[in-house]
Amino acid sequence: AQTVTQSQPEMSVQEAETVTLSCTYDTSENNYYLFWYKQPPSRQMILVIRQEAYKQQNATENRFSVNFQKAAKSFSLKISDSQLGDTAMYFCAFRSGGGADGLTFGKGTHLIIQP
Amino acid sequence: DAGVIQSPRHEVTEMGQEVTLRCKPISGHNSLFWYRQTMMRGLELLIYFNNNVPIDDSGMPEDRFSAKMPNASFSTLKIQPSEPRDSAVYFCASSRVEAYGYTFGSGTRLTVV
């Protein structure tokens, strides 16, 4: 079974700073997908960014980018020019590439952006 | 696109009562997932369906939980009888089988007193 570990329960940075959230995972598969989801106080789960394991290029979505290290099984999220609206829980998630299986989530990191 | 629609948004019930949570997936999505979120256990996959057929229900905590998907546009998660430890936020998500993105509903916060 796959496991996803987020080692930072909470982080706090000043507005406009850059912050990196860590995620490691354990799998014996070679084909899989990785995701970062954001959950603001409204509790809606919002997809931030996703990465296919077979792609070497790191995914980027505007201010959000990932550092995907397949050999190290690491998938960190970098948020540049952080904004107050980025305050939320952030969850790293894994999905097997074999089919429409469910996501395995980490425990989450509570990110607080200070004004 | 109305997104994944869950109802009710909040539910408060007494221990021992039956609770039914509802989900309408995005039209054209043929995979549907039920998750439970608690502070202690985080987000857990309970069950998922492909083309209305239950594929994996190993996450369902016990026989008090059951889920159905009678057609492509509707699913229910039922708890009977409910217990205080069932209190959680329950999410429904949908996707296309061949795609790898998941869209979540806004969740149902269940409180069993």
Structural description of this entry:
The complex is a heterodimer of chains A (115) and B (113). Chain A is mostly beta strands and 115 residues long. Chain A contains no helices and 12 strands. Chain A has strands at residues 3-5, 10-14, 19-21, 24-26, 32-39, 46-52, 60-61, 64-69, 74-79, 88-96, 104-105, 109-114. The model of chain A has no long low-confidence stretch (mean pLDDT 94). By secondary structure, chain B is an all-beta fold. In chain B, strands 2, 4, 5, 6, 9, 10 and 11 form a 7-stranded mixed β-sheet that branches. A 4-stranded antiparallel β-sheet of chain B has the order 1-3-8-7, with no helix packed on it. Chain B starts with a strand and ends with a strand. The mean pLDDT of chain B is 94. The interface between A and B is medium-sized, with 22 and 25 residues.
| Helix residue percentage of chain B | under 10%
User: How would you name the oligomeric state of the polypeptide chains in this document?
Assistant: heterodimer
Low-confidence segments of chain A, given as residue ranges, are none
Span of the ends, CA to CA of chain B? 36 Å
User: What class do helices, strands and sheet pairing of chain B give?
Assistant: mainly beta
Give me the secondary-structure category of chain A: mainly beta
SSE order of chain A, as H and E? EEEEEEEEEEEE
Note the beta-strand portion of chain B.
Answer: over 45%
Tell me how many strands of chain A there are: 12
Strand content of chain A: over 45%
Mind describing the biggest β-sheet of chain A? Answer: 6 strands, mixed
Measured by residues with Cβ under 8 Å of the partner chain's Cβ, the largest interface is: A-B, 22 and 25 residues
Radius of gyration of chain B: 13 Å
Spell out the key features of this protein.
heterodimer, A: 115 residues, mainly beta, 4-stranded antiparallel sheet, B: 113 residues, 55% strand
Brief write-up:
Chain A has 115 residues and is an all-beta fold.
